[in-house]
Amino acid sequence: MKQARNALTALAMAAGIGLGLSLGTGTAQAGQQLIEFDAPAEGLAAVAATYGLSVSGGVADARVVGGQLLLYGTGGLNGHLVFDGAPGDLRFEFDTWITGAPGNTNVGFTTGNQVFFIHPGYWDKYQVPNLGLSGSLGFTPDENMLTHFSVDISATGHVSVVIQNNHLAAIVEFNDTAYVPGVSRPGLTVGSVPGHWVIYDNLVITTVPEPGTAALWLGALALLAAVQRARRRSGATPPG
């Protein structure tokens, strides 16, 4: 997985996408990092206070340990951990997996209006239920393999999602017409059944580069996925 992540980083640098090293303050600049989970916190209240987040039902517990955000669902209801007052043109980057056999537990994100999620280890599909969108990823993420998300949300509500494990990728796009920069509250989601921690690692939020660069980033990811699929067919060992 580290090799794949290094390749993604190299592609991002080639596309001119830089990640900042400090929390965003004032007017956000392209490529500026807005948040990084680097300070430990224990419990929902502590995580929310430390990182300026709000909890929207369905999350029973939260922790930040070793740079990882851990969420524990209550069961039945999808829970959201959202970021208040986020500007438009955002990129969410995170790796995720679920402890134990995840079954019907789902993971994903919300734009503040629309929820996008997948069921690692259960389905090979994504869903955007409020828009009636559903489709196959072509692979089934699970607790034994990191699933990487790269999510671009433009100020106009256009959402581009790249979901990737260490040798396959899927790209999904949709529009959130109700998205309002600085008002809508994007964030992470967890849901369906209790008993499992959902782990979000390498999670950063940055301002998105100009649309042309964002398109190049998506194209680069697709190219990487195609190369890795070809290697896999030829018998090469996928990076781990």
Verbal overview:
With about 240 residues, the chain is an alpha+beta fold. Helix content is about 20%, strand content about 40%. The chain is built from three helices and 16 strands. The protein has helices at about 1-15, 45-50, 210-235; strands at about 35, 40, 55, 60-65, 70-75, 80-85, 90-100, 105-110, 115-120, 125-130, 135, 145-155, 160-165, 170-175, 185-190, 195-205. The strands form two sheets. Strands 1, 2, 4, 5, 7, 12, 13, 14 and 16 form a nine-stranded antiparallel β-sheet that branches. A seven-stranded antiparallel β-sheet has the order 3-6-15-8-9-10-11. Helix 1 (about 1-15) runs antiparallel to helix 3. The chain is globular. The model is unreliable at about 1-30 and about 235-240 (pLDDT under 50).
Strand content: 35-45%
Shape assignment: globular
Query: Helix and strand string, N-terminal first?
Result: HEEHEEEEEEEEEEEEEEH
Low-confidence stretches: 1-29, 234-240
Calculate the terminal CA-CA distance, rounded to whole Å.
Answer: 4 Å
Total E-strand runs: 16
Rg measurement, Å:
17 Å
Largest sheet, if any? Answer: 9 strands, antiparallel
Structural class: alpha+beta
Number of helices: 3
**Would you tell me the overall average pLDDT?**
73
Helix content percent band? 10-25%
Strand and helix layout:
Elements: H1 2-14, E1 33-36, E2 41-42, H2 44-51, E3 53-56, E4 59-65, E5 68-73, E6 79-83, E7 90-98, E8 106-110, E9 115-118, E10 125-128, E11 133-136, E12 147-153, E13 158-164, E14 169-175, E15 187-191, E16 197-207, H3 211-233
Antiparallel strand pairs: 1-16, 2-4, 3-6, 4-5, 5-16, 6-15, 7-12, 7-16, 8-9, 8-15, 9-10, 10-11, 12-13, 13-14
Helix pairs in contact: 1-3
